[in-house]
Amino acid sequence: MYKIILVGVGGFIGAVLRYGIAGYIHNLTRNIPFYYSTLTVNIIGCFLIGILTQIFEQKVHIPDETRLLLIVGLLGAFTTYSAFSNDTYSLFRENRIFLSLMNIGLHIFLGLAAVLMGRVITISILKKI
After folding, report:
1. What is the DSSP string of 37-94?
2. Amino acid 102: pLDDT
3. Which burial class, exposed, middle or buried, applies to 10 when counting CB atoms under 10 A from its CB (0-12, 13-18, 19+)?
4. Cα Rg for the chain, rounded, in angstroms?
């Protein structure tokens, strides 16, 4: 139960940070037709997961609870793109090139397909109401 609470607390902090940072960037770039707010949050998340995973891999004694709080909770709520990027990097680093490219392709293709399917299904349902 304690670990679930840690993930939840980290998730709350990550979600609030995402909201605040994305809102700030959106206000700065509102006249530019590009999603700089999402890009900024994703790049910050990738940078932070790079720092944290490198620290954890250097045999620095970090309790599992800290990892849950920071990586699963905080960064998980801040952006899942950081996890996707870190997973892809890990596959590349292990010389699993095909799997890393497959990971990229599937995330992009299936993600876009899922958005389209969700929209099409919702349009279909809403027409019946």
Report:
1. HHHHHHHHHHHHHHHHHHHHHTT----HHHHIIIIIIIIHHH-THHHHHHHHHHHHHT
2. 96
3. buried
4. 18
Determine the Cα–Cα distance for residues 95 and 110; give it in Å rounded to an integer.
Answer: 24
Distance CA 87, CA 77 (A): 16
How does pLDDT run along the chain (129 residues), one tens digit per residue? Answer: 999 999 999 999 999 999 999 999 999 999 998 889 989 999 999 999 999 989 888 877 889 999 999 999 999 999 989 889 999 999 999 999 999 999 999 999 999 999 999 999 999 998 888
3 state DSSP class of 35: coil
Helix (H, G, I), strand (E, B) or coil at 29: coil
- Quote the crossing angle between the two packed helices 36-57 and 2-28, to the nearest 10°: 140
Give CA torsion, residues 37, 39, 41, 46, to 10 deg.
-170
> pTM for the whole thing?
0.80
Alpha-carbon span 24 to 21, nearest angstrom: 5
